[in-house]
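Hi V.,

Quick status before I head out on leave. The structure for the redesign project is tokenized and pasted below; the design run finished overnight.
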């Protein structure tokens, strides 16, 4: 079965969603990601016992932080499903894609763009008088 989901989705595999640190998620937004979502095993079915519960709590905390700094907590989501739920994975990807489109571009991207524009070009050299 070939899953069809938006090409803008970049998958990063981890052993357990519980291993995803808050810094990883925040760094994604800092780098300009418009949205991040974690897909973990069903609650109660975690191979690492409570990893998905830790991830869920972490996601909720980070959503509050994202709201407080003006990025928007709706840009971060966590879904739980089993490894055999491929069609549901694709549906979650579509759902998250729509959520991100509705939220618009990450406000940090505009700041990054302005910073990049303000930096002098790497090909410029200082002039010297002879």
């Amino acid at each position: 079965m070939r899953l069809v989901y938006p090409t803008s989705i970049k998958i990063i595999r981890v052993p357990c969603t519980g291993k995803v640190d808050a810094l990883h998620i925040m760094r994604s937004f800092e780098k300009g990601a418009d949205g991040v979502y974690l897909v973990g095993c069903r609650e109660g079915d975690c191979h690492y016992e409570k990893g998905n519960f830790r991830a869920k709590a972490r996601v909720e905390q980070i959503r509050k932080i994202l709201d407080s700094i003006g990025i928007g907590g709706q840009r971060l989501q966590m879904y739980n499903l089993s490894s055999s739920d491929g069609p549901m994975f694709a549906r979650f990807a579509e759902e998250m894609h729509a959520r991100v489109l509705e939220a618009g571009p990450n406000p940090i991207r505009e700041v990054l763009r302005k910073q990049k524009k303000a930096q002098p070009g790497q090909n410029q050299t200082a002039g010297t008088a002879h």
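Above is the designed sequence. Residues 91 and 126 are 54 Å apart (CA to CA).

G. will cover questions while I'm gone.

Best,
W.
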